[in-house]
Design goal:
With 201 residues, this protein is an alpha+beta fold. It is built from 7 helices and 11 strands. It is globular. It comes from Noviherbaspirillum suwonense.
């Protein structure tokens, strides 16, 4: 009987382990950028609710993906969803960071009443200053907006925390309304984030 060499045994063991490990989470590609089906935010695993592209006129600006504990189909369900949340943006073109930040603020103002904006004046000021620290956002740069229970809104640019967490949980809902509110940044992107695959491109 032929003996199996140690190296061969090792390769067979690795193959068996991989075959028993279960399927690897598939990635959705939006604008050439991958979005994993499952990510980790804080201590929680989140599922990709939907992903799509933000267009300005006919030009793609960024890819966006929304992650939640469980998939939701309406903005109200997304806002009310418990636990951690994530919005992940990947730039599809280079833009001036200050102008990009101003567009964020405009989206907040258009989708939140004045009383709520007044109540969130301090978090909004902190958020507005964030983009002043970055001269520009280049194609491929990533902005991650996480809601982490016990911390608040945690913002990262290219994997590095860009500012102190914003503790008020309601502020994250204000951010989400940029994309999911009554006057979203891009109505097709809104549908894509809510799981409409036909709106994802």
């Amino acid at each position: 009987m032929a003996r199996i060499q140690p190296a061969t045994k090792l390769l067979l063991s690795m193959a068996l382990a991989l075959s028993c490990a279960g399927p690897v989470a598939a990635a959705v590609t939006v604008g050439g950028f991958p979005y994993e089906e499952v990510v980790r935010a804080g201590s929680q695993d989140l599922k990709l609710n939907g992903a799509g592209t933000r267009y300005k006129l006919i030009f793609p600006v960024y890819a966006a993906g929304l992650y939640l504990n469980e998939k939701k189909k309406t903005p109200a369900e997304v806002y009310a969803a418990p636990g951690a949340k994530r919005m992940r943006l990947v730039m599809q073109r280079t833009v001036n960071a200050d102008e990009f930040g101003q567009a964020f603020i405009a989206g907040i103002q258009q989708n939140n009443d004045k009383a709520e904006q007044a109540r969130m004046a301090e978090p909004l000021a902190k958020f507005g200053k964030l983009f002043a620290t970055v001269p520009e956002l280049k194609k491929g740069d990533t902005i991650t907006l996480d809601l982490i229970p016990g911390q608040g809104t945690v913002i990262q640019i290219n994997g590095r925390q860009a500012a102190e967490p914003i503790g008020e949980p309601a502020f994250y809902t204000m951010l989400l309304k940029i994309w999911l509110g009554d006057k979203p940044a891009d109505s097709k992107l809104k549908n894509a984030l809510l799981g409409d695959a036909d709106s994802a491109s």
